[in-house]
Give the backbone structure.
Amino acid sequence: MEATVMHFRQSRYRVNSHQMVLKAADSAEEAQKVIGKKVVWTSPAGTQIQGTISALHGRKGNVRVIFPEKGLPGQALGQKVKVE
């Protein structure tokens, strides 16, 4: 399964690069099924960054992903990630 990186999770003054918002499904019910699964983003150089889907983000099928070791770079926005 694939998902699209939509945005960094952010507040008014701070951008958190370790938490991302992904478009995983078309509805919240479908997105609920992928919570707890692993996410892998592969850079153009071949480096892989892994994270875990933690929760729903809204009611449109978006989910939150936490990347514990290092966050995603800005070039990942709009790209596809693999959900395992």
